[in-house]
Amino acid sequence: MSKISRLFKGGGSAASRGRGAPSPQEALARLRETEEMLSKKQEYLETRIERELAAARQHGTRNKRAALQALKRKKRYEKQLSQIDGTLSTIEFQREALENSHTNTEVLKNMGYAAQAMKKVHENMDLNKIDDLMQDITEQQDIAQEISDAISNRAGFADEFDEDELMAELEELEQEELNKGMRDVRLPSVPSTSLPSRP
Which residue windows does the record flag with biased composition (Polar residues) (predicted)? Predict the structure, then answer.
């Protein structure tokens, strides 16, 4: 079985489990579970947003306070949904980086074996060049980690909602309700008989 096959079929070394560090397969499984949980939370929040919007429409003209409260809840849910979107992006990035890192580790191991074979073939190989190569690889890994850290720190959102924006949204909902009501109004029909002439 190839090393790449073992990577995706599970396993992991007993030594890495003995040290307490999770294997790449365990970490990937947990990241996928977290992605699934956050996706369910997204669906839940989208449903709640729709409910609050429906409640705001229902209370629109009759109970402004209840309509405003529903719109505030809707805004909070939208904020949470936006945060989950960012978190999911970060987790996906981390999962992909972990998959790539694990693959790169296997590639580096194989490159190490090849380097040993080359050393036997080429007794006069310059070890300083190998050190320089490894330093370059370490430097690139540090840069990748810094990028990952920067992406995972999302900027916060303001906690307050713009009351003017909420009022404008409420007025829009009220106008929709009025327009619906006007469509349902039935006017009396015009009499079909002629009117009497003036005496």
Answer: 190-199
- Look at residue 13 and give its three-state secondary structure: coil
What is d(CA 22, CA 98) in angstroms, rounded to the nearest whole number? 12
Under DSSP, the state recorded for 155 is P
CA angle 33-157-98, nearest 5°? Answer: 30
Q: Taking a C-beta distance cutoff of 8 angstroms, is the pair 90, 155 a contact? A: no
pLDDT at 81: 93
Which domain covers residue 36, as residue numbers? 24-113
User: Rounded to an integer, what distance in angstroms lies between the CA atom of residue 50 and that of residue 169?
Assistant: 14
37 occurs within a structural domain? yes
pTM over 0.90? The answer is no
Q: For the chain, how are helix, strand and coil distributed in percent, rounded to 5? A: 75, 0, 25
Residue 91: partners with Cβ closer than 8 Å, 6 or more residues away: 31, 34, 35, 38
CATH number for the domain that contains residue 42: 1.10.287.1060
